[in-house]
Every structure is written in C-alpha cells, then in structure tokens.
Specification:
This protein has about 575 residues and is an alpha/beta fold. It has helices at about 1-20, 30-35, 40-45, 50-70, 80-100, 100-105, 110-115, 125-145, 165, 170, 175-195, 200-230, 255-275, 310-320, 335-340, 385-395, 435-445, 460-480, 525-530, 530-580, and strands spanning about 235-245, 285, 290-295, 325-330, 350-360, 365-370, 410-415, 420-430, 450-455, 480-485, 490-495, 500-505, 510-520. It contains 20 helices and 13 strands. Helix 1 (about 1-20) packs antiparallel against helix 3. The longest helix is centred in the C-terminal third of the chain and has 50 residues, at about 530-580.
C-alpha cells in the first residue's frame, strides 16, 4: 500500500506542475499551483526506503510532466519518434539516476536517528530543505543547457502571471524564481511532515519557523523590488517602428506550396499595414520558414522572379523598407567535412542553415543569422557527418541529415528614422528560450531581441503560449524588449519589464504595426554574473558531499582506533591472566 501511495505522490506532483505551467485548460498557467507542485514529491522522497525508489519516483514525475505538458511534440510529423519519444526515454533514464541523489537528502543513519528525532540537531530540517532545493535547481539547469537543452516544464514558467514578482529575474535569472517556488514547496511539505511527529520538539519548531520566516522575507523582498521596478520611471531613449506579419500557413505543405502561399499572404499583409502608416516603419518582420524552396545566397537571383505571381525582391524594392524574413542558407563546410576531403573522400552533402535573412530597402541581402542552438535529433543529429549515422537515420527515420548549426553570433545594426542605430539580436525559433545564447548577444551590446518562429506544426494553443512564456523571461533578465514574429502565434511585443505592448490572436492571418520603446542599455546582475543561483546550489551540494566523505573517513578511522584499543585491552588482560597463573 505504501508503494502505491508513493507512486500517487509522484504522479500528483506531475499533474500539479503540468497544470501550473501553460496548458489547454489554464492557458496562462497558475502560479498558485506552481507553489505547491513539488510538495507531494518532497513527501514521497522523505518516505523512500532506497536510492532506487527515489530514482524511480523522480523519473516518474519528470517523464509524466513532460508527456502531459509537451504532448504537442508528437505533432512534429516524421520527427515525432525523436521529439516526444526519444526525449521521454532520455528523461526516464537520466532522472532515474539523478533522482537517486535525493535519497541522500532524506537518509538518516541509524546511529543519528535518535539524535534527530529528539530534536538535538536543529540544522537537520534546514539542511535537507536547502539540499532538496539545490538538487532540483541543478536538475532544471541541466535541463535548460547544453545539446539536450529543453527549458520547458520548469517551475518558473508557472510564475508568468505574477509580473511584479518575476522582476527578480534581472537579478537571479529565471532559475532564481524556480528556486523560490521549490523553497516554498519544501517548507510547506516539511510542515505537513512535522504534523505527523507527536510530540513536537522545541528545536524542531524553532528551525522550521526560521525557515518559514526566511521564505516570507524573500518573497516580500522580491515583491518590494518588483513593485519599485515595475512602477518606477522608465527612460525611453528611442522608438523602433516595426510591422510583424503572421501569415498562418503550413510551411510543411508538400511541393513547396506552403512556401509560395506564405510569401504571397505575407506580402499582402505587409502592404495593408504599410498603407495604414503615416511614416514607413524601420523594419518589416516576417516569420520563420518563409523561404524554403530556395537556399541563399546561391539562389538569390531567382527571387527576382519568385513567386511568379509577385516576385519577392521587386516587392521589397517597391516598398523601400528593410525586411527580416525566415529562410534557408547554405553554410560553409564543417571541420569534419574538410578533413574527409583532405583524406581523399568525396563530400557531396550541402550544409543548410535555418536562418533569418536581412534584406535592405533595395532588396540586397544584407546578411543572415543562422540558427546556432538546434533542437536535438529533430534539427541536429549527433555524428551527422559520419556515414554510419546517415545510414542508420535513413533506415530508421527516412532521412539522413538535419540542419547545420550556425557558428557565428553577431548583431545586426539598423538605422532608425531618428538617425540612431539599433543593434538587433536575431533569434530563430527556440533560440529565444536559451539564456546562455541570449546573454552572449546581450553582452555584445544588443538593444532588442527579435525572434522569428514557426510553431504552427504544434496545432495547439498551449505550445504557442509555452514557447512565448519561456522566451518572455529574456526581456526581464536583460531589460531588453522582445519582438516575436511568428507563423501562427504567438506574435507579440514585450517591453523590457515584461509588459505585452501589442499582440495578435493565435492561428489567424494578420499583421501588427508597433512602436517598440528602446531603453538605455543597462547591465543587469544576471547579465553580469550569469547563472549564479545554480552555481551556488552546486557549491552547496558539493560542500555537503565533501562533509559526508570527511565524516565517513573520520568514522572509519575512529572505528579502527576503537578496534585497536579493544585489541590492546584484550592483550593486556591476557598478559595479566598469564602472570597471575604463573
């Protein structure tokens, strides 16, 4: 019965977290549910009998949360085997091993159980609360960085509706918000655990109350800081006038009909909004995957005649406005390809990049920004240059290559009507979800983040909103406006304080004209120090690991000394007996 209850606790946490973040029932999520999401899991860990049981519970919670909140990954056509299948398997296996670390948080050696139960160790409750929170934050950090980065299903997503509270992201980063939510869950769970301990020892009371007081203080400080920032005077130094186009077409339609259709609809929507504006905008932004049938710069000239109904380049010249358009570029050979050529092998494959194409007002290709953070397996295939991997992928999935990652991180300067220059950080699709990439661009001197996205394949509102919510924290972390122009949603402009200035409904064809406020560049605490919250968490865990090893070595040495002393006494007694007998 206890094992069934443990499984229920793990599943309950998964359900709470899935409802707390953006979903089909609660489109903008629930911060209140987010505060309590980890309570059942914490209680389950406290009752786990073995490390494997803890690993199983954590694996169950994470994998079920992934399936419930990111079910829309199964709509990624031929890649669904990898986007939802491979990721779920990965979380199931990796979290089983990671979850075993939580057993050490709650494990009490038999020799110390009486001391802890009697309340003579007042640091026991704070220690395990901070260890639990630290390990969980390290899990979210690991989940959000590296090749397998996927920062969805994270606690901070639940906080989106609390805009004042979320302002602390400029200091702590988004993971600082996750830390506070996990801290709340831990303390609430400890309170429930203590209710079952009768009678309560005074020292247990005092340590728990100290934790609760610290939680209250941190939340109050966060609210005070957020209120000051949110309601304070904001210094706007200029405005960036843009038109955002949401054509709402399926770019995956066969025979490139989605490509052609999307360009024509985008032209019509751009023309409509241009006709409604007194002055020309500084930039017209279309969505990701607008030009798929031709790759640039090789086939740039063909855009003089494509689409045949209204060719793209003459259209841009006619409007005399710069355009940012999602398309495909040919990238240079990789190091592995160059090496193979030098070894005498023929290298025929072309490296394609998913990119943002920048056309000036005369329709010249001013440059491009190729996506550098690729989606694992769906866009980036490990060892894709190797023949054995290409054959395997062709046999299993029907394709043998993916996108090639862009190797250059650069900003695009654009002259504004005011005479000033805005430095644009271009982000393709999921790139606006990755803090490390955005931090690099921010620290290069970016004034604004511009994201081109195509999430139309998801066919769900929750997928569109989840992507936006994860991305919106970049505006808070770096105090920079975020502009998102998407295929079907969520097209929106967010100022440097998280306010939605303007947006379009999901899954409609429309365009949006916006004057985006630009602010004086400031280096936030998070921009300066990066992910210092998970780093401090890692140091805290490391300190306790070293302390555990020290105590273990000390106990072993003491045990040997006791054994040696016992043997010395036995020898002395034996010698005395021998003397008496003689």
């Amino acid at each position: 019965m206890s094992k069934i209850l443990q499984v229920f606790y793990a599943l309950f946490s998964a359900i709470l977290l899935s409802l707390a973040i953006q979903n089909e029932f609660l489109p903008w999520g629930s911060p209140f549910l987010g505060l309590f999401a980890l309570v059942p899991l914490y209680i389950a860990f406290s009752r786990a009998k073995t490390a494997r049981e803890s690993g199983f519970l954590f694996s169950l919670t994470v994998s079920v949360t992934h399936l419930l909140s990111s079910f829309w990954l199964s709509n990624f056509k031929d890649f669904a085997l990898f986007t939802i299948g491979a990721t779920t398997i990965w979380y199931t296996i990796s979290c089983f091993f990671l979850g075993q670390l939580f057993y050490g948080v709650f494990f009490i050696p038999p020799s110390k159980k009486l001391i802890i139960d009697s309340g003579k160790n007042p640091w026991h409750i704070p220690r395990r609360v901070f260890l639990f929170v630290s390990l969980y934050i390290l899990f979210e950090w690991q989940k959000s960085t590296g090749f397998l980065a996927y920062p969805w299903g994270t606690l901070y997503m639940a906080s989106y509706k609390w805009q004042i509270f979320s302002q602390i992201a400029a200091i702590t980063g988004s993971l600082g918000i996750s830390w506070l939510f996990a801290f709340f869950s831990s303390i609430f769970a400890e309170g429930l655990i203590l209710l079952n301990k009768v009678p309560l020892v005074k020292t247990m009371h005092s340590s728990f109350y100290a934790l609760a007081a610290s939680l209250f203080l941190l939340f109050m400080l966060s609210m005070v800081y957020g209120t000051i920032i949110f309601t304070g005077k904001k210094e706007v130094i200029d405005y960036f006038d843009v038109i955002l186009v949401q054509q709402n077409t399926d770019s995956w339609e066969s025979d490139f009909q989605g490509d052609k259709k999307g360009i024509l609809i985008s032209q019509a929507l751009s023309e409509k909004n241009l006709g409604q504006m007194e002055d020309k905008p500084d930039l017209v932004v279309w969505s990701e995957s607008n030009i798929n049938s031709l790759y640039l710069p090789d086939y740039y000239e063909r855009l003089e005649h494509y689409p045949p109904e209204r060719p793209l380049l003459p259209f841009i010249r006619e409007k005399q406005v710069p355009f940012a358009i999602g398309g495909v570029v040919r990238l240079p050979q990789t190091k592995n390809q160059i090496k193979r050529e030098q070894e005498g092998f023929s290298v025929e494959e072309i490296n394609f990049g998913n990119a943002i194409l920048i056309f000036d007002s005369d329709a010249k290709l001013d440059g491009y920004s190729a996506k550098s953070q690729l989606v694992p397996f769906a866009e980036a295939i490990p060892y894709a240059d190797s023949l054995w991997m290409q054959k395997l992928m062709q046999k299993v999935a029907g394709f043998s290559s993916g996108w090639t990652a862009g190797s250059e991180i650069r900003l695009f300067p654009l002259a504004l009507k005011s005479g000033n220059t805005v430095r644009i950080a271009n982000l393709v699709c999921f790139e606006d979800a990755f803090t490390d990439l955005c931090r690099k661009m921010n620290n290069l001197g970016a004034d604004v983040f511009v994201n081109l996205t195509n999430d139309s394949w998801s066919k769900t509102n929750s997928a569109e909103i989840q992507h936006f919510v994860v991305a919106s924290f970049r505006a808070l972390e770096f105090r920079k406006p975020l502009i998102r122009s998407t295929n079907s949603g969520y097209t929106v402009v967010v100022d440097a304080y998280g306010n939605r200035i303007a947006d379009l409904p999901l899954f409609v064809s429309d365009a949006l004209s916006v004057s985006v406020p630009l602010y004086k560049n400031q280096l936030t605490t998070y921009a300066r120090f990066g992910n210092w919250v998970p780093l401090c968490s890692a140091l805290f865990v490391l300190f306790h690991c070293l302390l555990f090893l020290k105590n273990k070595i000390h106990a072993k040495v003491k045990s040997k000394e006791n054994l040696k002393g016992k043997k010395d006494i036995e020898r002395t007694l034996a010698k005395e007996d021998s003397n008496e007998n003689s």
